[in-house]
Amino acid sequence: MDFDLTEEQSMLKDSLKRLLADNYGFEQRRKYMAAAEGWSGEMWGRYAEMGLMALPFAEADGGLGGSAVETMIVMEEMGRALVLEPYFSTVVLGGSVLRFAGSEDQRAEWIPQVAEGTLKLALAHTERNSRYELSSVETTAKKDGQGWVLNGAKSVVLHGDSADHVFVTARTAGDTRDEAGIGIFMVDAGAEGFSRRGYTMQDGQRGADLRFENVRVGPEHVFGDAENALPVLRQVADAGIAALCAEAIGVMDVMRELTVDYIKTRQQFGLPIGAFQALQHAAVDMFVAAEQARSMSIYGTMMAESDDADERARAMHAVKAEIGRAGRLAGENAIQLHGGVGMTMEYAIGHYFKRMTMIDIALGDHEYHLRALAEKGGLIEA
Question: Which of 11, 53, 88, 198 is least surrounded by CB atoms within 10 angstroms?
Answer without folding.
Answer: 11
